[in-house]
Design brief:
Number of helices: 13
Number of strands: 12
Strand content: 5-15%
Low-confidence stretches: 11-15
CATH topology of the largest domain: Aspartate Aminotransferase, domain 2
Bound molecules: pyridoxal-5'-phosphate
Helix content: 40-55%
Mean pLDDT: 95
Shape: globular
Order of helices and strands: HHHEHEHEHEHEEEEEHHHEEHHEH
Distance between the termini: 12 Å
Number of domains: 2
CATH superfamily of the largest domain: Type I PLP-dependent aspartate aminotransferase-like (Major domain)
């Protein structure tokens, strides 16, 4: 592909050069497709008035569980709350170690802190950017050697939509008698070995934050499990520890329910989700084909499918590349600029002898390019042309 001219050169070149605005996400176009149906569903909720745990919530839960191929889906207030409630269902608390990747959103470790447990940071694989099972073994051995904490849970993250290696991580966790909670905040719709996210770990948390592949019009999330007892526990926890209509608190809980209005929005979006996932995957393979001679495309191991919440590559001089794309009207994202062990809020858990070189290197050079179901091929070409010019 020939290099493109700079923004000023293009403007000088004449009117045939179209400057576009290509946002990282674009919910307005999705609204143009689905808005009328969403408004009609919201109206129905306003009419029946069951704003908390209305019928749309349980209908959505059935559809979410069926899509994921799992017995239970419990709709909750956010992705972070889903992680907290999953930890609460396993009675994780002070003195417990929860192993999290160092390269993720802060909520992964934040949820651990919320139940009084201690996050232990694990490095990620340089190809998939997901938790490295070998480094997990090292981190577990260190915690055991220290003797101060009880290893309880491993919490891998499905970064950018790609499921973590649950087969390898589950084996390491089981060898130490630990449970696995999947942080699938970015990966609803992802797959590994013919199973979908939700069915890959005993407990999975996802997020319906508006820009996630399946996003609400506000905060929301869900917990998935095949285990009846864990699902019951989560249902109680999200509703003040109460069971059904009972007013007795059977266990400690929280206000952790998904609003009925958000459930109604998600019902419409879930009906379109398979199509949207297909569109994201098609765009990702177009990016792969156009970028592969210049940068390494995201690695999707054999048998895995990403939900492509984000399309992320590594580049040198990342911040300069980002600024150039910005000049051309192209929105990009930095997920994540700071590995977890460098966040001030988590500094008191940092021992100083962590060795997390992959997470640190990624934080310096990842950049996410626009990807969403309504991105056009012409827009993708525009992004690619300017990206290649910016990295040249
Ligand atoms: C990996 C990860 N974990 C947890 C969360 C928290 O989800 P929410 O924003 O719905 O609380 C997010 C959301 O951005 C995330 O990306």
């Amino acid at each position: 592909m020939s290099p493109v001219k700079s923004a000023s050169a293009q403007r000088a070149a004449g009117p045939e050069v179209v400057r576009r605005q290509v946002n990282l996400f674009d919910l307005q176009r999705q609204k143009a497709r689905l808005g009328a149906e969403i408004e009609a569903r919201i109206d129905k909720v306003l009419d029946h008035g069951q704003f908390i745990l209305g019928p749309e919530v349980s209908e959505l839960e059935e559809d979410l569980a069926a899509f994921a191929g799992v017995k239970h889906a419990i709709a909750v207030s956010s992705g972070r709350d889903a992680l907290i409630m999953a930890l609460m269902a396993l009675d994780v608390g002070p003195g417990d170690a929860v192993f999290v990747p160092a390269f993720t959103f802060s909520a992964t470790a934040g949820s651990v802190a919320s139940v009084g447990a201690t996050p232990v940071f694990v490095d990620v694989d340089p190809l998939t950017f997901n938790m490295d099972a070998a480094d997990l073994e090292r981190a577990i051995a260190r915690v055991k050697r220290d003797g101060a904490l009880t290893p309880r849970v491993v919490m891998p993250v499905d970064l950018y939509g790609l499921p973590a290696d649950y087969a390898a991580i589950g084996a390491v966790a089981a060898a130490s008698g630990m449970q696995v909670i999947a942080d699938g905040a970015q990966s609803y719709g992802g797959e590994a070995g013919n199973k979908r996210v939700g069915a890959l770990a005993p407990l999975t948390a996802t997020s319906f934050y508006p820009t996630k592949p399946l996003g609400a019009y506000g905060d929301g999330g869900a917990i998935f499990s095949d285990d009846d007892a864990l699902a019951d526990a989560v249902r109680q926890i999200r509703h003040h520890g109460r069971a059904g209509d009972g007013d007795e608190a059977l266990r400690l809980g929280m206000t952790g329910r998904l609003d009925t209005i958000q459930a109604a929005v998600l019902q419409v979006k879930l009906a379109a989700f398979e199509h949207e996932l297909g569109a994201r995957r098609r765009l990702a393979s177009m990016y792969d084909a156009r970028l592969k001679d210049h940068v390494a495309p995201p690695v999707i191991p054999q048998g895995f499918e990403s939900a492509f919440a984000l399309y992320t590559v590594r580049v040198k001089n990342r911040d300069a590349v980002r600024a150039k794309l910005q000049e051309e009207g192209i929105g990009t994202g930095l997920f994540y600029r700071i590995p977890l062990h460098r966040h001030p809020a988590f500094s008191h858990w940092v021992r100083g002898d962590e060795h997390l070189p992959v997470s640190e290197a990624l934080a310096d050079d990842v950049i996410s390019l626009p990807i969403h179901a309504d991105l056009t091929d012409e827009e993708l070409d525009y992004v690619v042309a300017h990206f290649l010019a910016a990295i040249a």
